[in-house]
Automatic annotation (TrEMBL), chain A:
EC number: 2.3.1.234
Subcellular localization, as worded in the UniProt entry: Cytoplasm; Nucleus
Stored Pfam families: TsaD
Binding site for a divalent metal cation: H112, H116, Y133, D297
Principal EC category: transferase
SUPFAM superfamilies reported in the protein's UniProt record: Actin-like ATPase domain
NCBIfam families: arch_KAE1, gcp_kae1
Note on cofactor: Binds 1 divalent metal cation per subunit.
Chemical reaction(s) catalysed: L-threonylcarbamoyladenylate + adenosine(37) in tRNA = N(6)-L-threonylcarbamoyladenosine(37) in tRNA + AMP + H(+)
Gcp-like domain ranges (all copies): 31-303
Protein name per Swiss-Prot or TrEMBL: N(6)-L-threonylcarbamoyladenine synthase
Cofactor: a divalent metal cation
Residues annotated to bind substrate: Y133, V134, S135, G136, G137, D165, G180, E184, N269
Organism, as annotated: Blattamonas nauphoetae
UniProtKB/TrEMBL annotation, chain B:
Organism: Blattamonas nauphoetae
Pfam families noted in UniProt: APH
Keyword ATP-binding: yes
Keyword Transferase: yes
EC identifiers of the protein: 2.7.11.1
EC class of the enzyme, as a word: transferase
GO molecular function: protein serine/threonine kinase activity
Name the UniProt record assigns to this protein: non-specific serine/threonine protein kinase
Length: 350, 311
């Protein structure tokens, strides 16, 4: 029997990614184009959708060429159903609908967050980690229990990446390659710590108050030279990451897990990876930091998850149901492809 | 208000633990038994977290230890039995406090539940027959209005405190697993409703009174589970572990506090949800603000943002 191959389309935010993967997990192609806006600005829904629209055809062709495949070699088409920004999501979904009818292939609608986790498990070979999912739109601490990826803790307002992006905009950092990357580089040169609001409520975190606090005295700090941009980036990173590691550790203690996996764009940050590694090593576990190429939104992870779903018998999504959902929660998906593993939820007496 | 105990199951665990025994270790603190004044005490230390910036780490550990100390004091002033604080060390971020004798209420309830079932084996049978709940037609279906509470409330016992079973414990079997054969004891228990005896009823009433006092003193416990309540040999309830406590007069905070207790009850001794109901009923009659808190509690439970999450 020939290997089954899926193509995945991701466009939930400012990155358009198309990836092709086999059932053995070999990534045959994973191409991407990022919509980058000038410093001091962010990406807007309409413009982002337009960007995706302009590049969809070219990238699809490129992915097929890289993988040396014809459309007839594919088994199924996978696309991001959500969560994400509506207009970019719709653009991609409509394109996939069209392809499905031209190529006569089934469609699988995929949850973006779940696909980050599945790609992380595939790449790092970690079987049952507690997952810290940190990106521009999401901040969640997730563990697998009773057939679903359960959210143990999450942000109660803005996502960590959103907090970083907005601060980068405030201090006019470049959006190339990403605002978060540039904050990380500045933070390396900072050393003076400004105490920021540290908001952890049980396993939940909050960042909006912290951002307002930073913005309030930003001008004053920079003008008087009391704190440099570098110092502020340093303080921001140290505070926010300490909060994230703390809630991850709490979730690990709660479910009795030893391994931790970081996924999502902010997971590329080396300081976050170092802090996580220190915490996890002290607990006698292993950290599975992800490769940059997979941490960032991409098509291969959508293809990988869609193929897992397809092969485990999830029926393809009928064309009239290939809709998108901006708020498609991680814990709504029945993870039917993972049957064996389960945490003992009774252990902690909660 | 002392309970009349026939044979006290609580008295069995009166042996002192050895010095050095670790009573608990969470993400944040380690609790050990230490020698103190020819007796023993409990020491709770928040060790340094090397992953975070030292000045941030020191600040957090200090303020949390301090907050815990203050909340215990406030609770004590409100007339609630709490461990006495012997020593607080700010540099070390540790609290040394009284060792509380007795048995966690969680244990008391689980044993009661277990004994009741072994004395009334027929109850399981009845429950099995009557709990053939209809399964969702298509578990893969993910629509924006995914039903969360599609399980009917099944009552085996028409206990006056019987209540709707939370969907937290309900398992949706996958299509290839026949629902009945895979049902283990726990799931069956989660659908049972067990009547309370006088002793358990009394504990629930005591607890309701304590929680009313606590909230009227504007202390939010933050981690109300039945493991954090100790029934002492003199049949009083001692509240422990104020590690997540804070002061607040907000009805939302109080409602969430009670909601956490419900969640803890449904996951650890689900057949005794009437215990929670009686606790709440007593709380309602004793607390000054109970009307608005209970009204908010309904909203909190309906909100269900985290219904199906942490056990």
């Amino acid at each position: 029997m020939t290997k089954r191959i899926a193509i995945g389309f991701e466009g939930s935010a400012n990155k358009l990614g198309i990836g092709i993967i086999t059932e053995d997990g070999d990534i045959l192609a994973n191409v991407r184009d990022t919509f980058i806006t000038p410093p001091g600005t962010g990406f807007l829904p309409r413009e982002t959708a337009l960007h995706h629209n302009q590049h969809l055809y070219r990238l699809t062709k490129l992915a097929l060429e890289e993988a040396k495949l014809k459309p007839s070699d594919l088994t199924c088409l996978c696309y991001t159903k959500g969560p994400g920004i509506a207009m970019p999501l719709i653009t991609v979904a409509v394109f996939v609908r069209t392809l499905a009818q031209m190529w006569k292939l089934p469609i699988i609608a995929v949850n973006h967050c779940v696909s980050h986790i599945e790609m992380g498990r595939l790449v790092t070979k970690s079987e049952n980690p507690v997952v810290l999912y940190v990106s521009g739109g999401n901040t969640q601490v997730i563990a697998f229990a009773e057939g679903k990826y359960r959210i143990f803790g999450e942000t109660i307002d803005i996502a960590v990446g959103n907090c970083f992006d907005r601060f980068a905009r405030d201090i006019h950092l470049s959006n190339d390659p990403s605002p978060g990357y540039n904050i990380e580089q500045l933070a390396k040169k900072g050393s003076k710590y400004l105490a920021l609001p540290y908001v952890v409520k049980g396993m939940d975190v909050s960042f909006s108050g912290l951002l307002s606090f930073l913005e309030k005295d930003l001008k004053k700090h920079l003008e008087t030279g009391e704190y440099s941009k570098e110092d502020l980036c340093f303080s921001l990173q140290e505070t926010v990451f300490a909060m994230l590691i703390e809630v991850t550790e709490r979730a690990m203690a709660h479910v009795g897990a030893t391994d931790a996996l970081i996924v999502g764009g902010v997971g590329c940050n080396l300081r976050l990876q170092d802090m996580m590694s220190e915490m996890v090593t002290q607990r006698g576990g292993r950290i599975c930091a992800m490769d940059d190429r997979y941490c960032i939104d991409n098509g291969a992870m959508i293809a990988q998850t869609g193929l897992l779903m397809y092969l485990s018998g999830v029926p393809p999504t009928p064309i009239e149901e290939t809709i998108i959902r901006q708020r498609f929660r991680t814990d709504e998906v029945d993870v039917v492809w993972r049957k064996d593993e389960n945490y003992d939820m009774q252990g902690e007496g909660m | 208000m002392s309970l009349s105990l026939k044979r006290s199951p609580i008295m069995e665990e009166t042996a002192y633990p050895n010095v050095g025994t670790i009573l608990g270790q969470g993400a944040e603190a380690i609790i050990t038994v230490v020698a103190f004044n020819e007796g023993i005490a409990v020491k709770k230390v928040r060790p340094a977290k090397t992953y975070r910036l030292p000045q941030l780490d020191t600040k957090l550990r200090k303020s949390r230890t301090n907050q815990e100390y203050k909340c215990i004091q406030r609770a004590e002033k409100a007339g609630i039995l709490v461990p006495k604080i012997y020593h607080i060390s700010k540099p070390e971020s540790s609290l040394t406090m009284e060792f509380i004798h007795g048995k966690a209420i969680r244990k008391v309830l689980i044993e009661y539940q277990h004994d009741y079932i072994s004395q009334h084996p027929s109850i399981i049978q009845t429950s099995k027959q009557s709990t053939l709940a209809p399964q969702p037609a298509d578990p893969y279906e993910l629509t924006p209005t995914e039903p969360q509470n599609d399980e009917p409330d099944i009552q085996v016992d028409d206990n006056q405190f019987s209540t709707a079973q939370s969907s937290d414990d309900v398992q949706h079997p996958l299509p290839n697993t026949p629902p009945l054969q895979t049902e283990d004891e726990d799931i069956v228990h989660s659908r049972l409703v067990i009547a309370l005896d006088d002793q358990i009823k009394h504990i629930a009433e005591e607890l309701g009174t304590i929680l009313a006092k606590l909230h009227d003193a504007n202390v939010i416990h933050g981690d109300l589970t039945t493991s954090n309540m100790i029934l002492t040999p003199s049949n009083q309830i001692c509240l422990i572990d104020f590690g997540l406590s804070y002061a607040s007069a907000d009805i939302e905070d109080k409602a969430v506090d009670l909601h956490l207790l419900r969640r803890a009850c449904t996951s650890t001794h689900p057949a005794l949800l009437s215990f929670y109901d009686l606790t709440l009923q007593t709380y309602a009659s004793k607390s000054v603000n109970s009307t608005s808190v209970l009204k908010r509690l309904e909203v909190v439970e309906l909100r269900g943002r985290k219904r199906s999450m942490a056990g």
